[in-house]
């Protein structure tokens, strides 16, 4: 099944966005098609935070994005970024799902656990992050840049999640959809045209 | 004390944008686009959304800065908005803005709290699809900024004059980062 058929199939089961976005592309990509100027910079931000060279591996950064989205109950972002993480070197879907359930018991480093703790606090509100949370991450070897990027990725997904769900963007149920998104973004980053966008 | 090593003579959002210029570039551009770009919402109305969401998130730095900006822009001072004000009841705003601010307040709690009914009510009060889109994205943007600023415990000046000067800067110069970066002198009256 190609992506156009997949969109048609999934859209039969899901509602459309709260505003008329003039397209039937699900999730954030439909909103991005509606508003290309803001889409361009939102994708640039995602590229810097998740795909460009940084102090943390791509897998860890996508995992933080997916984890915060799970806390915000944003199924579209949680599943998409979970699939991207799973398609990256060192990633696997079971590990991602273990982090959604309980990151403290998942098979990830203590350092990543301490950063996910900070991300969890950021999701509740910036003021929830304490000196002790930061000290614990530094003790596990987290650098200032690791901590900065963790806070900004978590904060950025508090934005992306609200953008998607606040406008009621369509959220497909079909796992095939997320597998396609995950594979593409893991390989290409965020600056290439989406396979979901038809010519 | 900030949680990470930031330039000690910079405050709030400026100090974290300065720390990582690669992420600052798209952030500044997005903010400039949403708050200063072409729109059927006035600049004061868009700053009011930023101010309201920041107050609900208890972010003193952003609430104070964007309240000051709102009041410096045409039509802003007449709304009666104060820093850290969370109730909309006393504001002098039209029904369209009231319904857009209600959507923004729901976005602040969670995107999932916004309903089709909230959107229909805003439309009945004259809001366009584009205005609703921009309201949701501005509210979401400040849910990010508030967390970025407070999540790293950036320095928050207590002095009201500071925010007045910052308000003047963002209402005249806008949100793009100066070519030579941020400096402590940016906060001084010129």
Layout of SSEs?
The complex is a heterodimer of chains A (199) and B (190).
Chain A: H1 3-11, H2 27-34, H3 36-51, H4 58-71, H5 75-87, H6 93-102, H7 110-124, H8 131-139, H9 144-166, H10 175-188
Chain B: H1 12-19, H2 21-36, H3 43-56, H4 60-72, H5 95-109, H6 116-124, H7 129-151, H8 160-172
Helix pairs in contact in B: 1-2, 3-4, 3-5, 3-7, 4-8, 5-6, 5-7
- The best one-word shape of chain B is globular
Query: How many strands of chain B?
Result: 0
- Gyration radius of chain A, rounded: 17 Å
Per CATH, the superfamily of chain B is AhpD-like
Largest sheet of chain B: none
Globally, the shape of chain A reads: globular
Mean pLDDT of chain A: 93
Strand-and-helix sequence of chain B, N→C?
Answer: HHHHHHHH
Name the average pLDDT of chain B: 96
Oligomer: heterodimer
Query: The CATH topology of chain B is what?
Result: AhpD-like
**Uncertain residue ranges of chain A:** none
CATH superfamily of chain A: AhpD-like
State the secondary-structure class of chain A: mainly alpha
Q: Work out the largest interface and the residue count of each chain.
A: A-B, 49 and 47 residues
What class do helices, strands and sheet pairing of chain B give?
A: mainly alpha
Strand fraction of chain B equals under 5%
Q: How would you explain this protein's 3D organization?
A:
The complex is a heterodimer of chains A (199) and B (190). Chain A has 199 residues and is mostly helical. Chain A has a single domain (27-187), classed as AhpD-like (Up-down Bundle). In chain A, 66% of the residues lie in helices and 0% in strands. The longest helix of chain A is centred in the last third of the chain and has 23 residues, at 144-166. The two termini of chain A are 18 Å apart. The mean pLDDT of chain A is 93. Helix content of chain B is 58%, strand content 0%. Chain B has one domain (12-172): AhpD-like, CATH 1.20.1290. The two termini of chain B are 28 Å apart. Classes of the chains: A mainly alpha (199), B mainly alpha (190). Chains A and B meet through helix 3, helix 7 and helix 9 of A and helix 2, helix 5 and helix 7 of B.
